[in-house]
Amino acid sequence: MIAPSRHELENLRKNNKKFLKEVKFHVGYNPARKWYKYKNPLKQAKNYFIVIICRYLPPGELKNHLYRLMGAKIGKNVSIANDAILDPIFPELIKIEDNVILGWGTKLFTHEFTLDTFRIGSIVVCKNSMVGEFSVVRPGVKIGRNSMIAAMSFVNEDVGDNVLEGGVPIHIIKHYEGMRKASRKQFVS
User: What domain range is 170 assigned to?
Assistant: First the structure.
């Protein structure tokens, strides 16, 4: 199997580091046709079933619990909107910290295939962040604290702390640490 070993996964979780693995094959191999070699097909079937159910459940603790059963690490006060998809093949590579919002139709994929490459990578969404609706997050990406991803974005690289990013491919739109402090003052008085 090309999947990450238990040892690699434990180091990932303990050290809170990104994990990225890329395997090149000879031209004409087509790694997508060998999907059953990457993860036990019965585990994949269970995870696909959970993903199908979760797509239609409203945000809440039941949905978060089902994703945790798949192996995803999900913090407290996380809201995963309808039609969002967490990767069913390697959900254990997804870490969503506290107070995160994943918008409608958001997709977090920890694996991808090309004609001659199989790539897997962890996805970390840090505290108090939001991923806008219909955005796609690629393997090996970390979204920083207090950051926002605009709707319909392709997140193909790391996102820093306290920024608004968006687009295809993603780019910085605004640094907003000062903006957040100003908006809090408006509502406090």
Answer: 6-188
Instruction: For residue 1, tell me if it sits in a domain.
Output: no
The model carries a pTM of 0.85
Position 44 in a domain: yes
Tens digits of per-residue pLDDT, 25-65?
887 788 888 778 788 889 999 999 999 999 999 999 999 99
Q: What is the pLDDT of residues 131-170, one digit of tens each?
A: 999 999 999 999 999 999 999 999 999 999 999 999 998 9
Q: What's 63's domain CATH number?
A: 2.160.10.10
Q: Residue 117 CB: number of other CB atoms within 10 A?
A: 13
**In a domain? residue 158:** yes
Domain count, the chain: 1
